[in-house]
Write a structure and sequence with these properties.
It is globular, with a radius of gyration of 19 Å. Helices cover 33% and strands 21% of the residues. By secondary structure, it is an alpha/beta fold.
C-alpha cells in the first residue's frame, strides 16, 4: 500500500484539520484508479524559511500552501492550480489593542491604514506583499510571539484569515486581555490555497488533481467546506465590513485569473 507523506506544519489547527480532510477525500475518490493508499500527516513546524522550503528534499510528498509562496520560489514543484478554500484565507480580519478600537472605527482611506504598522511573523508569505502595497510591516518573531508583541505595542495591528481568527483568538489571545477582533474592517487580497506536490511524484499530482475534480463535481468538497467554515460569512459579518484591497504580486501566472467565491 502506498504511503503518502503530507507535510501539514507551520499553520493553525483549523487549517490543518480542513486541509487534511480534503487530501484524504481526494485520495479516497481515486482509490479505484490508483489503488489503496494511506496519508501520513507530518505537522512538524519549521521556524526558519530555509527549512520549510526544503520539505520536499526531506521526504514530503505533498503540502498545501498559498499560491506563489516565496519560500518555494526557487524549489522545483508541481502546482495543482485549483483553489481549495474559495479564497477564504485572503479575507483578513484585524486584531488590535482595545485602546485602538475607536481610532480604527474611524479609518476611511487606504492611506490611513498604511500609516499604521502591521505585525507579521518572520517567514510568513504575505509580509513582502504588504510592503509592495505600501504598508508599514514589522516582521518580527514567530506566530507564538505575535500577540504578546501586539499587546506590548511593537506594532499597531495584525491580521489573520477569517477561517482561523476565532480559534486563534480563543486559544492564544483571549487570556492576554486587552486585544479584540476589530468589528468593522477587513483586508482582502487574492490568496488562494493550493496543493504543491514533490516534483518526483507526477503520478501523485495526477491523482490528487483527479480526486479534487471528483469531489468538486460530486459536492463532497462543498460538504467539507461547510463542515469547517459553513457560517463564517454570516458569523463574522464579512459582507458588511469595509474592505481594504491589496494587489498580490506573488500570485503565479497560472492563478492570475483567480476570483474568490466566498461572498457569492
Amino acid at each position: 500500500m502506498l504511503n503518502i507523506k503530507f507535510w501539514n506544519g507551520n499553520k493553525t489547527r483549523v487549517r490543518q484539520s480542513y486541509e487534511s480532510e480534503l487530501l484524504e477525500a481526494c485520495i479516497s475518490a481515486t482509490a479505484r484508479d490508483f489503488g489503496s493508499s494511506t496519508v501520513q500527516v507530518d505537522t512538524t513546524n519549521y521556524p526558519l524559511a530555509e527549512d520549510e522550503s526544503n520539505v520536499f528534499a526531506n521526504g514530503a510528498d505533498i503540502l498545501v500552501t498559498v499560491a506563489g509562496n516565496l519560500k518555494f520560489e526557487h524549489q522545483q514543484k508541481i502546482i495543482i492550480p485549483q483553489p481549495l478554500a474559495k479564497g477564504l484565507l485572503g479575507y483578513r480580519l484585524i486584531l488590535i489593542r482595545n485602546e485602538s478600537l475607536d481610532d480604527f472605527s474611524k479609518l476611511e482611506s487606504t492611506r490611513a491604514l498604511q500609516a499604521l504598522s502591521i505585525g507579521i511573523p518572520q517567514t510568513w508569505a504575505d509580509a513582502e506583499m504588504f510592503r509592495q502595497n505600501g504598508y508599514q510591516v514589522v516582521e518580527e518573531g514567530t506566530f507564538d510571539d505575535l500577540f504578546v508583541l501586539l499587546k506590548s505595542k511593537a506594532f499597531d495591528y495584525t491580521a489573520l484569515g477569517a477561517n482561523e481568527i476565532e480559534d486563534v483568538y480563543k486559544e492564544r489571545v483571549a487570556t492576554l486581555g486587552d486585544i479584540s477582533i476589530e468589528p468593522s474592517l477587513m483586508i482582502y487580497y487574492p490568496y488562494p490555497l493550493v496543493f504543491y506536490v514533490n516534483p518526483s511524484k507526477p503520478q501523485l499530482a495526477e491523482r490528487v488533481a483527479s480526486g479534487l475534480k471528483s469531489i468538486l463535481d460530486n459536492g463532497q468538497h462543498e460538504q467539507i467546506f461547510q463542515k469547517h467554515h459553513g457560517d463564517v460569512v454570516e458569523r463574522l459579518n464579512l459582507k458588511q465590513r469595509k474592505i481594504f484591497t491589496l494587489n498580490n504580486p506573488i500570485l503565479p501566472m497560472e492563478m492570475q485569473s483567480f476570483t474568490p467565491t466566498l461572498l457569492d
